[in-house]
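So, can you check?
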Amino acid sequence: MYSGISIGAPRTLMELPQTWRELFPQRILASHAGSDFKDGTLPIVILILTAIGGAIWWWARNNPREALRVASDAATTLKNAPRRIAFRRQTREHPVEGIDDPRIAICAIAQSFLELDDLPTQDQRKRLHVLVRSNLRADEEEAEEMEVLGRWLMTQCDVAAQAIPRLGRRNFKIDGASSYDLLQDVLAGHV
């Protein structure tokens, strides 16, 4: 017994509401009155979350290789996100200024040109991948990494129209005019 209130289990069901009213002042109970799903939405929310979880489990069970690839991509993205944020905080400059390879700048410029009018189609992305591999002399994995990094650099410039001049200036600072012909070869394959 503490100040006349029994903390233990109530002896009957009728004592339960009285015990809670005594333990908690009326203003505390009133502030939490709307959060207990009195209208029956909690079972619906639980049902929806269970269905989503079941669908994800079923997909992962039927496509284990794809599920592992998606999980690996998600883990890599989560691992690299703080690095991207830290890069901007530490250097206090735009990520485009950190490019040291003209091939990455060329790939980012090509992706920016792809997105000028509208979102690129899958065929356009495949064509860019082939052009990057052939013109920039990159293997499969290196070409994919350059495309991902180039796309991220483009999104850091907000829109493709702003990314092209910024990436072009950086490309000129890195390599001068010597990579201009290579850029023209990659861009000519899109048109």
